[in-house]
Write a structure and sequence with these properties.
This protein is mainly alpha-helical. It contains five helices and no strands. The chain has one domain. Helix 1 packs parallel to helix 4 and helix 3 packs antiparallel against helix 4. The longest helix has 37 residues. It is elongated and about 65 Å long.
C-alpha cells in the first residue's frame, strides 16, 4: 500500500465519519444541545459531550476491529503459506489513524452545533 492510497483512504474515512456525525448531531441531538445551551451550559461542555460520546464509539470500534484482525491473521496464517504473524506496527498505525480521523470528523459538526442559537433550534426554524 502506497502513501497515496493511504491518504486517499483517510480522506474517504473522514468524509464518511463526518457525514454520519453531521446527521447524528443535526437531526438527533440538536434539540438536546439547544436545551442544554438555553439552560446555561457552556458551548465547551456541549462540545466535550459530543467528543466523549464519539470517543467511546471509536474505542469500541477500534477494539472490535483489532480483535477481528488478530483472529483473521491467525486464520490466514494457517491457511495461506507466507502470511506473517501479527504486525503490531501496522495495527497500531491503522488504529491511531482511525481514531484521529474519527475525532476530527466528530469535532466539526459538534462545533457547528454549539454555535446555533438555542431559540432558533427550539423554535424549529
Amino acid at each position: 500500500m502506497t502513501v497515496d492510497a493511504l491518504v486517499q483512504d483517510a480522506r474517504f474515512a473522514l468524509r464518511s465519519f463526518a457525514g454520519a456525525q453531521t446527521f447524528s448531531v443535526t437531526t438527533v441531538a440538536l434539540l438536546a444541545f439547544a436545551i442544554r445551551l438555553a439552560l446555561g451550559a457552556a458551548p465547551r461542555d456541549v462540545l466535550l459531550l459530543v467528543l466523549r460520546r464519539s470517543a467511546a464509539l471509536v474505542a469500541i470500534g477500534v477494539g472490535a476491529g483489532l480483535a477481528v484482525a488478530v483472529v483473521a491473521t491467525r486464520v490466514l496464517r494457517s491457511l495461506v503459506f507466507g502470511v506473517g504473524t501479527l504486525d503490531l506496527e501496522a495495527f497500531s498505525l491503522a488504529a491511531a489513524l482511525l481514531v484521529v480521523v474519527a475525532l476530527v470528523a466528530s469535532y466539526l459538526p459538534a462545533r457547528r452545533a454549539t454555535r446555533i442559537s438555542p431559540m432558533l433550534a427550539l423554535r424549529g426554524d
